Amino acid sequence: MKRTIFAVLTILLTQIFSAVAYSSISTGGPFSVHWNDESKRVRQGESFTLSVEIRVPEGHYLYAEETDIDFSSFEGLIVTDVHYPQTVRKRDPFFNRLVKAYDSDVHLKITGRVPDELSIGEREVVANVSFQGCSDKICFRPEMRVVTFLVDVIKQAPVAEKESGRQSSDALKSAKSQLSRLKSIHEDISAGRLAGGGIALTLLLVFLAGILTSLTPCVWPIIPTVLVFVGVHPHKKFLENMLLSFCLTLGISIVYSVLGLLAVGLGKNLGFLFQSRIFLAAVVLFFVAMSLSMFGLFEVRLPCRWHVKLHALGGDGYLGSFFAGMGLGLIASPCAGPVLMSMLGYVALQRDYLLGFAVLMLFSMGMGLLFIALGAGFGELTGKLRGGKWTVWIRRMLGVLILIPALFYGSALISGSCRIFHQAVPDVEWLTDVNVASALASRERRPMMVYFSAKWCPPCRKLDCLFWDEELARLTYRLVPLKIDTTVETPDIKAIMDRYGVIGMPSIIFTDPDGRIYADIDIADYGKDSIRSALIDVIGRTEGDTHGKDN
Q1: Following DSSP, what letter does each residue of 519-549 receive, concatenated?
Q2: CATH (domain of 533)
Q3: Cα–Cα distances in Å, from 383 out to 238, 369, 478?
Q4: Is the confidence at residue 421, as pLDDT, over 70?
């Protein structure tokens, strides 16, 4: 009997002390909210973490899109991030569709920071936790519960104070350096000197692809016949044979280079398609189809009547050899065709005329290198040409290489990345401190663009992609670009939003160098044309004012 009484008392005391250390709210339904309500001691300038747990009974689940935490009071503290757990895909019996849900306890992790200047004392963080859940048989109504955290702010250590001052100074220096880099990037773009770091490697691979294409079973065995057709002969002089072969290769190169320029022009005119996931999927399928063609699944060739007309091009002498090369370049053989089409697809996506010309020129020169080498040593080498299985394997190897861009664009399709379409232009390097950006705008006499964005805002992600456009990036670098992340609306963020009159995301506000808002400049649809017009308008006003003062 005594043992029983002792055990009951022990359990009761344990429950009492646990309730003091960890609070909970029963929602009346099957779900309950739990959090630690003990005061948390945090020094000035340091970070802290808080957590909330929503307990989900077995056989129940919460809708991820209905699970949220919103803060109604900070008392000077700053919440920097809220981490949500991984969701599961669950078929909802009520909507009969797959939904994102939580089928186990939900742990929400809150990260925050105590400002350096916040006074010492206890602060409250009040949060509203909202959610809605179901079982397999019934769906419960949406619920919201208020939880309160206590943060005891204590004095900052002397070392921390010095470090904070050093960091603040470093931040200002970094911002100045960043603005200087923006200037240099703007100058580089204006001079057309920007190119992706992998361009040299790309051009080298393209040249090698041309050489490999000439070694495939559709090209390698016919080289002697083509050379004889254009007048190369073992009894002619070495230099004459080499020049005839070079003119043949030059004809191929001219045709391919022009095709490259036309592909880039098409890409520029259809640039709006590059933001479409459907179009991106079509690009992936195009490269996969060209790869399968190299494995013999089907052939890429021109109609027979085109072959007859193109074979008729040419004649005696160097000019005849040049025109014969043009005809040969237009006849897309089963081996060269898929590689050529892949090259054209690649340069169309890059939308760079210089790159388009260079890629196709180098590909054709690589393909014609063997024609020149064999033409120069015609009498010694052409009789030794032998086909074989090795030429088939080279064709298959090219088929594998064509899959590389398919994988590249396929990964962008899955991730939703926009960067692949603007590799030659760096993303705009936004400043993030409004005070530093304002000071730099005043000092450099530049207008300022304030871009309000949030991670939960889908249109913001689309707008981020626009700033990879070369023209918009070039114009943006002529301003002081400031980006405000409003994912978590802290008092500081709210004050900035109120200062600029922002009520929704995305929002772009323009100011003059002295911080006065251009209230008459309004971006309606946040498309490229609207942003471009606004940027030109702001730059024109500021530069006009500057020139007026100088005069």
Answers
A1: TT---SS--HHHHHHHHHHHHHHHHHHHHHH
A2: 3.40.30.10
A3: 16, 18, 64
A4: no
